[in-house]
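haha ok so turns out i had the wrong file open the whole time. this is the CORRECT one, sorry everyone. sequence first:
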Amino acid sequence: MARPMDQNIAQLDADRSVEIVLCDELAHGDALIGTIAPILRHLLANDEHSVFSDEIIARVRGMMADVARQILTELAIASGNPDNRDHTPDQIAALVESLVGHGGFLAHVHALALEWQLTERMQARLALDPVLAPLLQALIASSDPAVASGTMALLASQARFATSQRRMQLPLSELPGDLVYAALIALRGYADGAPEAQAATTQAEQAIRGRFDESRSRLGLISRIVTGMGGGATAALAITHAGVAMFLSALALASGQDRDMAVLATNEGQLARLALALRASGLKPQAIEEQFVSLHPEVALPAGFEQLGSDQAAALLTRSASYPGG
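then structure:
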């Protein structure tokens, strides 16, 4: 039997509207968001148990270290030592510390770890393929060559994402543009104070920039495909039809949220945010209930939710917290 989203939501007083109750629940979610970055920073620096799963912490730490190794390898190549890829733990730790200090970088890596956790959960519970979802199969068969080829490129990229996540890796080429810049800032900080390294640092930066093309990244490909679907993008708001990756991007685009926040909204502590995001995306209450059955089958929408309009839901989200918070 489905449990209510929250005890407060389950016990609606006659004089309290569903909007007020959802707003209260959203404020609670905002408070949780504000604790994520400092807790993650603490856990990455200390091997202690926490409410954050060991798997998520290990994955975040692994991806951060992988990015650091890639930066150090680029620096070694630029310094004329292309075979020097055995970077010391201290070198890696110095770069990781800088990356962890960047709120947006930490939030994005955390979101990727959560996305993969959700992907594995959907595969185990609903047999949802982590790479080839029904919507992608349909798009591959499109009579439009651009759509078909773009979807094939996405499939290859999603397959690489799955492999990288299993290895706890994160290629620099898969980062959003602003976070590639953050990685370059970390590189400069690492070489700061060593004049002899400045030329190599500049060369390493140029090499990273020269190979980077955000439009060819996994998230760039998904965004282009979802945007190109126009009004048909509603189909991507059904997780069992679109798959986790496309569903999350479609939810972010349709609700006006950052994708990392959309990922976070699927977490059990952010149920009101998920309901509001789906409503702000234009989904009808019945379609939203279907997504909750897939994502949180034990959770019921609050009484009176059907009275909440899309504009009201969007307004509530606009007033809520952003991620990262610090």
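The two ends are 38 Å apart (CA to CA).
again sry for the mixup
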